[in-house]
């Protein structure tokens, strides 16, 4: 948060300027309309600014009735002020007199009250709406700064965990004050407008790149899966492969971009294991059992699986590496891949705003450019935030989960010009489905509207435990016309990756081998077309 500088005393609103503001609130409906959404009685201390507090309450009371949109009559305001003060007891008799005094009430040396002067001594030609709105903006900015100053002087009995929420609230006040008075309307084609083409980039995952054409900067996408259904595997696969792509781009002279995995559930050690397994292609069961690097193979003494891997990929024998060499090479190359453990003490309690601040700090201090951010997973992120703020899960959980994608798009994807992937689980009922059964983003755990603000959402079904294949439904797609389409993936848990399984297809709610489907004549899902297939251009729609 970057608050405006402290208002110097000579720039603070004087009592006379505050009086002028209230004259406009009483007599100018446009000023009243602007004020209703921002100015509240809480902006006026009952002890030092009691008359203004009472008068604003009266103005809002009358504005909701038959006088809405019109100048408020003097006598009506007068009577309502007397009534509200009798009811609430905000002002003593002396204060009330200074607010309501008319010429008939005065003795020698006294002056009329603010209310009488507003209607009888302030000429109509001096009612200038832009000037009043400027006064209103200055007052809102001044009060936001004063509130920040007061809250930072923390009373001893205040719970420290409440401060993030307080600071967030004050930040909103600052932003509202700065935006106030600015013209929100723009023409269809401003003179300085320039088109911004979509920047679509490969994700490193062949099935995503085939169906979606890669992922797009400034987008927020989602992956929804069952318990233990491979969400973390795919998330770590995206991060490590994107990291390698960014390193390759850097060798061609492009700025190095960073790939970030944010975990709210699994320990950092487990995520690092998954990523190293995927990057170095070392079997996960073996990697989890080693106690020394000496237990890893070194060229030329390779294990049978390594020889088979190199032979099938056509790598020259002179380039074959053992597990140790591949691990060292992965660590050397992927210096731009990072893990953020939000389970650590003092972290993971500030929702999306906290993560955005962490990334911004790296950008400001070290010049980072961000390529992709994967968040694992939204339910855990929100629960930690609500627990820290002592908010009830039953009342707030679904609302915050449903609002997280849009918040991530604004504070991460758009702010850092990167792609963001959000992981989330299905409901408990959906977890009972068998392999091959279609899934939908509307069955996301805790919040059916989770995918509302996502560009793409992949719904992962149950993994077939025997054939290790899984159905993926593209149930949300704002581009490329693939919404409602499905694909079959091969899950390789030992090497922590998913690959396209083009030898399988979907028939109804079953995953079957493609050759069998062709023979039976019920091939439901053809292989996905290449990204640049001109026959499919009509599917893509406007970019």
Can you offer a commentary on this structure?
With 543 residues, this protein is α/β, with parallel strands linked by helices. Among the domains are: 9-177, DNAb Helicase, Chain A (Orthogonal Bundle), CATH 1.10.860; 266-350, no CATH class. It is 43% helix and 13% strand. It has helices at 15-27, 29-36, 50-63, 74-88, 93-100, 114-120, 129-152, 163-179, 206-212, 231-251, 268-280, 284-287, 304-313, 323-333, 351-366, 378-388, 393-413, 514-520, 537-540; strands at residues 200-201, 215-216, 220-225, 257-263, 337-341, 369-376, 419-425, 456-460, 469-477, 485-492, 497-500, 504-507, 510-513. Strands 5-4-6-7-3-8-9-10-11 form a nine-stranded mixed sheet, sandwiched between helices. A two-stranded antiparallel ribbon has the order 1-2. Strands 12-13 form a two-stranded antiparallel sheet. A hairpin with a 4-residue loop joins β10 and β11. α1 (15-27) crosses α7 (129-152), α3 (50-63) packs across α4 and α11 (268-280) crosses α14. The model is unreliable at 1-6 and 533-543 (pLDDT under 50).
Instruction: Count helical runs.
Output: 19
Low-confidence stretches: 1-6, 533-543
CATH architecture call of one domain: Orthogonal Bundle
Q: Decide which structural class fits the backbone.
A: alpha/beta
The radius of gyration over CA amounts to 31 Å
First-residue to last-residue Cα separation: 34 Å
Question: Strands across the major sheet, in which order?
Answer: 5-4-6-7-3-8-9-10-11
Name the beta content range: 5-15%
CATH topology group of one domain: DNAb Helicase, Chain A
Shape summary: elongated
What's the total count of β strands? 13
What is the CATH first-level class name of one domain? Answer: Mainly Alpha
What do the pLDDT scores average to? Answer: 88
Considering DSSP H and I runs of 4 or more, what fraction of the residues is helical? 40-55%
- Biggest sheet details: 9 strands, mixed
